[in-house]
Predict the 3D structure of the following.
Amino acid sequence: MSAVTYELIHECRQSGARYGRVRTEHGSFETPAFMPVGTQATVKAMTPDELQEIDAKIILGNTYHLWMRPGMEVIAAAGGLHSFMNWQGPILTDSGGFQVFSLARPKDISEEGVSFSSHIDGSRHFLTPELSIGIQKTLGSDIMMQLDECTPWPASYDYAKNSLERTTRWLERAIDVWDHPEKQALFGIVQGGMYADLRQQSAREITSFDLPGFGVGGLSVGEPLETMLEMLDVIKDIMPREKPRYLMGVGTPVYMVESVLRGIDMFDCVYPTRVGRNGTAITSKGRVVIRNAVYAKDFSPIDPDCNCYVCKNYTRAYLRHLIKANEILGMRLLSWHNLYYLIDLMKQAREAIQADKYLDFVKEFYYKGGFVVNSSK
Amino acid sequence: MSAVTYELIHECRQSGARYGRVRTEHGSFETPAFMPVGTQATVKAMTPDELQEIDAKIILGNTYHLWMRPGMEVIAAAGGLHSFMNWQGPILTDSGGFQVFSLARPKDISEEGVSFSSHIDGSRHFLTPELSIGIQKTLGSDIMMQLDECTPWPASYDYAKNSLERTTRWLERAIDVWDHPEKQALFGIVQGGMYADLRQQSAREITSFDLPGFGVGGLSVGEPLETMLEMLDVIKDIMPREKPRYLMGVGTPVYMVESVLRGIDMFDCVYPTRVGRNGTAITSKGRVVIRNAVYAKDFSPIDPDCNCYVCKNYTRAYLRHLIKANEILGMRLLSWHNLYYLIDLMKQAREAIQADKYLDFVKEFYYKGGFVVNSSK
């Protein structure tokens, strides 16, 4: 029995977009879904109760950050990450690779693993596919991600090919030490840079393993939106229909709406909380930079179409004041609204898919937001 | 009809401590009470809903900060401070004097008022007793404080005498422009430095005006606790029994518990939120410096005797991690607990007063906290 199962409930007849449900031991969630990121055992500025209130069903934890601080001894003593941070729902953890690769020098990456210096105290560490699984086992996440080699952009064809093939070998090593599939799921990760044939090679290799789900990594790393969407298009028919597909690190409205059209089920990004803390609100009409002087005496909500706690109780003028005065409450309220907006956007997407109207939904989304319609569909 | 009325309900037969109720247009609250400080139109890190949840009945606003930012044009357009910050309960505003005096140079203080430079943009301003009332009128607070000259410590006898006498003259000027006693209450402020006869002179002068309540200012400014308590002792019988007494800027547990014994009804202090953001918890057993290594694997609550949301849901180990990782949630949760503790401490004090057991309560408080019993009673 797998710790995580996926049920494809409906494919939109208008668009092919997928509506489904993922079940875990800590609860189930419908897809497509946005997953808030809880880097350091907290979704920044939010309590677990508030995450429940905005209908966040699953959150992320960052293996690298938790490994470095508070460290696995503390997490193990707490009985895992769920208990440590008092979050009862499902948790997905990344492999730690993304952060480690950004800290490592090129010569530190070998077939065996990656060596790097901690950003906190400079201490040296060595991350391997096996160790990543070991750490995620201690974290006790419902979904673990394999250690992959995240290909930077731009990268040469040979570099991207070597990376994806190493990622496949690292997946084999991760599977070898994955001794508890009934407790924690393991997802493999499709790489391949921005080369269509390499993406397809990677998708074929990675999905040849019978895993409960798959990630797509190395996208939204600086390339144009069209390039990213092309990479999703070329692997769409290779990815198994009956497994969930997680587009890693992507979570802006346009990118999510377009990716759902290409069969993606799960998203995560620090974007909503990061820009929220800096005073930017994400709305159905585009971004609202709340610290702008034009909002000084604007006593309307951030987004009149939004039903969140923030939009029902606070004005743009008040939020602008809080952000300009560097008040924690301002960062809290904008993080709250932004997370609500993205979670609710995916809820609306699920409803549109079920009603076989997802293409209409995409058009309406672009129209409301004042965007140029650039969907390739 | 006065905007604010006070009812002395019971005097503790064991100690003389007072239990009463203050009524305002925005609701009533029992005394003795701790009032959280909302300097910049927010009690730092807390929503109005959370303040309600911890039973905060009245909060403070700082006239100086709100005058400088967002400015009175914005507050007036919002319809006052209650509406601007979405707080429905009573609000007390200070005069702005305390902050202005700390920014002014000695030569900037005259009989007419105080000139100073804004800490935000350096612009020059001139605060008078009349202007302070005008600003507080725009803020729409339930209780306004007169502009006073806060005597520093130490100060010479002559300096303290001149300050208190000017404060009395400034009260007359404030009363002259207080044209709406049915909408907003005005409290005068007792000064007098650390000289018993000057404190008594000030108490007699200030309470000769028929005002709905009185503040005691210029205490807890660096002097020993015993000196402060002596200053309260010498004015205790001069202050009218049927009016509430507000000890300005005092809000640590020992200081509050001792001051209640000397007839004080209202307190405020930034202490709980300030030390909370820095990772210190206030508990019935004294202060807990949560970032200390000893708490790294301590999975007990901050205070096992505390019934607050934080103590019911989070461990010392988790809070330590959050504070060390500089996470907003850590600052939020410690602010929450600390405010709850002080508000609850005053609730327990009220119950002890009603039961005529306030001296027993003080002894128990010192015993639990491991303090040396230094009450002069």
Observations:
- Chain B is about 40% helix and 20% strand.
